[in-house]
Automatic annotation (TrEMBL):
It comes from Marseilla massiliensis. Residues 73-205 form the SusD-like N-terminal domain. Its main location: membrane. PROSITE patterns: PROKAR_LIPOPROTEIN. This is RagB/SusD family nutrient uptake outer membrane protein. It comes from the Bacteria. It is found in: Cell outer membrane. Belongs to the SusD family. One of its GO terms (cellular component) is cell outer membrane.
Amino acid sequence: MKKNIIMLVTGIVMLSGCDDLFSPAIDNFKDQEQVNSSSEYAQGMLLNCYRIIPGYYSDTDYATDDAVTNQKGNPYLNMATGNWTAADNPVNFWNQGYNTINVLNRFIANIDNVKWTDDEEPARLFRMRVTGEAYGLRALFYYYLLRNHAGITDDGQLMGVPLFTTFLSSDANFNMPRATFSECVRQIISDLDSAEAKLPEEHENINSNSDIPAKYLGITKRKEVYNRVMGQYARQLFNGIIAKAIRSRVTLLAASPAFKGDQQAWGTAADAAAAVIDHVGGVDGLAANGVTYYCNTTEIDALKEGVNPKEILWRENIQTADDSQEQNNYPPSWFGKGMMNPTQNLVDAFPMANGYPISNPKSGYNAEDPFSGRDPRLSKYIFYNGSKGTADDGTGTSHDVAILTGSLSGTDDGINVKETSTRTGYYMKKRLRMDVNCNPSSNMKKPHYIPRVRYTEIFLNYAEAANEAYGPTGRGGHEYSAYDVIKAIRKRAGLAKGQEDAYLEECKDDKDKMRQLIRNERRLELCFESFRFWDLRRWNSTLTETARGMDANAGAYHPFDVEQRAFADYMTFCPIPYSEILKYDALKQNKGWK
């Protein structure tokens, strides 16, 4: 058995294809102190599966109406401008997903053969926990495969991906047809059910024997044993609330227009999101500082022992001294590469501080002073012309400086001045800490973390699904409505401060207007977090909106087109890899892809 496990650990590293797919090690794997040598290999196998989870900041935003990039040859730039094929697909997850699932299948088949520890009670708990983790991870990887490769075939069928739930050796028959989309959803939900049945809601220590959850009492009645296996040492490993969050994602996908969702499907998605929201106390559980989760410096600097901020449901490991986000995205005058360039399209999506869209006559928007009186999130998420911040002037001394983005600004931050300059007149501020110094002569790195799931995402999932299922103010048996959730999110953002949110009140009696408001709030709250690429597709929304910019010079503002989008209608769904279609005649390609 030990030999098999060693081969599996080695195999998953080889099959993953490239090292940059690996995220930093989970900070709570302390198995060497807890288990014997054979269980180390089994834990190592699961550890590698965690490391292969797709990154949260994948930068697919470059291929949407929210952003462009100044990186020539970037795969998402190529995709958006007409060079997306089934053989050259930047969002291909096929081999990575199936390699990992096959390892998980073998792990599940061999769990009972692993000697987790000499003590019977903790051994049984370990077996239960890692089985739950494996089912949860398999569900997660199937979700990504479904999101990235499901679609409608030439004969009009809505298809998912092939389903493999047992280990396949190298001589197995891999020429398997795609399961239907609904069959894939059912399999993911089944795996999540299995995960929840075996895992605690959260991995936290308990204080007394009476606190042991009922499902574990048949194994142990001792808190010391429970805490050893299911307690805080296992933080950031898959747990019950993570399973609920993934359930929310997959049911929202299944309910969406591109996947032929109906009112019942929307109700299922609302129920799934509500289960997570209830876990944090309902609408009042929305984290007050969640808008700036990425730069709540005191909170981030204090994180340890796998603890999460209130906004974060699941995250990657803490990077204790890092500046990679800032190196890549600070403006060039701050020694950054300025890669993520927000569009005028996104800037225009931020309402005025009174909550009205800038296109609404009641908003008070002034095109000659476009950044004044806007939604407070705009200045938190985007550097625009005149944005101020504390930066190193190149001598090691920090000053409060304005970022000037106009083409005539005379600075490296101006439009298209150099390869690292903005193409749109904007730079991304979200994801960045302002206390990081990228000056090579006085470099200052700081702790960072990357989310896997934010609670705000789940609140927005509920708002979208509940509005479709019950209308803006309907609750469907829950304690809150879509209106209640959006009201809380906009209040947290600082809109209509101290007064009634009049625009929200206008929307609450109109399902269609509320839908547009919810989608816009999702766009703003989750901008630069790699959601919009997938949201536009599941909504069947326009993919070809031209990315626009704004040239600001001497108080004059001139909009301009930056990048044309070249997505064909069939690109609502992503392709099955061309190499797989060539190898396996049982696979049907999504319509339009060659």
